[in-house]
Amino acid sequence: MTEIKRWLELVEKICVIIGTLVYLVFAVVIVRQVNSMSKIVHDKFNLILIVFSYFHLAFAILLLILAILLL
Amino acid sequence: MPRAKDLDTIAPDDMVSAIPSVSVPKLKKHKKARSHSVETQRDASLPLNPSSPLKIAPLPSRSADLKYRQKVYELIKDKTAWPLSAFLARPKVFNFDGQNEDEEILLVLRRHWFTNLHWIFLTIVMLVGPMFLKYVPLLSSFSAKYQFVFILFWYLLTFAITFEHFLSWYFNVFIITEERVIDIDFYNLLDKKYSEAELAMIQDVTSKQGGVSQTVFDYGDVLIQTAAEIPVIKIDQIPNPNLIVQILQQMRGEERQEELEGRQK
After folding, report:
1. Contacts with B89 (C-beta within 8 Å, 6 or more apart), sequence order
2. What is the pLDDT of residues B93-142, one digit of tens each?
């Protein structure tokens, strides 16, 4: 029974890591998207939006590290 | 060789006397630096003798297209230039890729703020969602570590969804410059569309408003039919659609005036 529970926890952990990895890719796409949009349309808040996208990427990386280390 | 005076008896090989004319160079279009006081131009290579029989043809007056432009400025004068507005009149900071150096931006339009309410509401619901977990124990079967990671993930996802909606609103712009209209659409993360049409190519402009919210908050669609490669440019849910039609009509009038006067494009 404990063996099954251990396997289930491992599967859970792998699923969470895959999920956070996919999310990390999504965060990278957002950064690329904001950069490409900012090249076409230049306005006052572009820099703030770029900074926000990088913060989001940093949090996505943090989430992946947490998923690997904490779980 | 005697010159034929009577045009009825003129032979094909007869020389015809004519008043020597000076070809007036077309005025280069430089709208931003337009000095409407300049009325005539002459060829620099010609002699400056005032008794010369050569007559310098006056350039067409610009008062007519100045009138059109003044009308446009009057139409947008009380509109905002705040960067997060859906109706940006003559913005100082805004510019776009492909803009000419001396091209003045008259208007930048985004979707009306009312169209953003659905995702603002969604964001609020997602933000307060985890607070209801103590009443609806969806994550209770997981350990505290998993619950922490899930909640962190949830808030990141909330931020990403909100950010995506905001980006979609902020960067999908319709621009009216003194020379053309440009529609920049980013459909999703990877697809974008860039349409533009010269003002002279615009054939017809119509606005469409329907429903309670559009009538109450004065927003709607504008359809621009063009003779350009893209036959129709549709601008969705912009504020003051009737005003946009008026502005485009004025700008078309100005372009027509310039065409009639034969100014260079």
Report:
1. B76, B77, B79, B80, B81, B106, B107
2. 888 888 888 888 888 999 999 999 999 999 999 999 988 888 888 888 88
* Model pTM above 0.80: no
CB neighbourhood size of B61 (10 A): 12
Provide the H-helix boundaries in chain B.
63-76, 117-128, 144-171, 212-217, 241-261
Q: How many domains does one find in chain A?
A: 1
B83 touches chain A (CB under 8 A): yes
User: Phi and psi at residue B223, in whole multiples of 5°?
Assistant: -110, 125
The candidate with the shortest Cα–Cα distance to B44, out of B65, B69, B67, B23, is: B23
CA distance B236 to B224: 11
Could you identify the residue written with the tokens 């280069």?
A: B28
ipTM of the complex: 0.90
**Cα distance between the two ends of chain A:** 20
Q: Closest partner residue to A41 among B149, B184, B189, by Cβ?
A: B184
Per the structure, the complete domain to which residue A15 belongs is given by 2-70
Amino acid at B162: T
> Taking CB atoms and an 8 Å cutoff, what residues of chain A touch B167?
33-34, 37, 49
CA distance B24 to B261: 12
